[in-house]
Structure formats: structure tokens, C-alpha cells
Amino acid sequence: MFIRASVRDEHLAEDVLQEVASVVAAKFDQYNRDLPFEGWAIGISKRVMKQHFRSAKRNGVIFDEEALEALGAAYERREPPRQDRLRALELCLGTLDSQKRALLEMRYQGEVEVQEIATRLGATANAISCALHRIRTDLAACVKRRLAMDKRSGL
């Protein structure tokens, strides 16, 4: 997405994406897992794009490196790092009552089909599907609230 937003030419965007993927694969052992992967990959993307734009500049194409930096910074800020979302989800899961948690565990950890859960619990498949939907909706809202609280408090 970042590359396509930065490079208008679809073929050049594909070339840049392939080169970025190659660099990411080659340098993956240098990635610090304590930092967000997205920011690291965007940094590589910016360097690769700068190389392409410098080459294009020699051919008369004008590009503003400051615009690339600003776009990269905007992409890095657009959503919380994955570990923040996972931490918020863990906290939200901890607030569920035992029945809701058991239902989620059966469905997603045990990979039990909805119909089988319904049979085990003496309910209809529709009732189980609705309950799972409500739980997921509540969890999504909880995660969103927690991330907003973390953002306001500067965590």
C-alpha cells in the first residue's frame, strides 16, 4: 500500500515491491523483533524507492524526497503496532466471563465447528453463531477503547 501510494506507475511499483521483498528477506536476520515490523519494512521501502527515484531523476523525472519521508511517517502512524493490539486483546479477553471464554476457546483454539458446539451445549447453530458474533464485536470495541486510552495516556 505504501509503495503504491508513493509510485504512480503500476509496473514500477511492482518492481519496487519485488526489490523490497528481496531486501527484507535478505536482511530479516537483522530485524529487531522488539520493534514494529511495519516500520522496519517501510524504512527499507523508502530506501529502495529513493534509489529508484534517483535513477529516474537522471532521466529527467522530478521527485521530492521530503514527500516520501512524510508519506512514510504517515503510514507508520496509521495504526498501532501489532504487539499493542495483541496486548489490548489479551486484556480484553481477560474481562470475559467463563462461558464466553469457553465458547471462544472451543471455536478458535479447539477448532470445533459451530454445529458441533451447538450439539455439545444443547443450543442451535444459529444461537452459537450469534453469540460468537456478539463476543467478537464486544472484543473489537474493547480493543479499540484500550488502544485509544493507551494513545491518550502516551503508552
Automatic annotation (TrEMBL):
GO molecular function per UniProt: DNA binding; sigma factor activity
Domain RNA polymerase sigma-70 region positions: 4-58
Keywords of the record: Sigma factor, Transcription, Transcription regulation
RNA polymerase sigma factor 70 region 4 type domain: residues covered: 87-139
One Pfam family it belongs to: Sigma70_r2
GO annotation (BP), single: DNA-templated transcription initiation
Family: Belongs to the sigma-70 factor family. ECF subfamily.
Name used for this protein in its record: Sigma-70 family RNA polymerase sigma factor
Source species of the chain: Aeoliella straminimaris
Lineage start: Bacteria, Pseudomonadati, Planctomycetota, Planctomycetia, Pirellulales
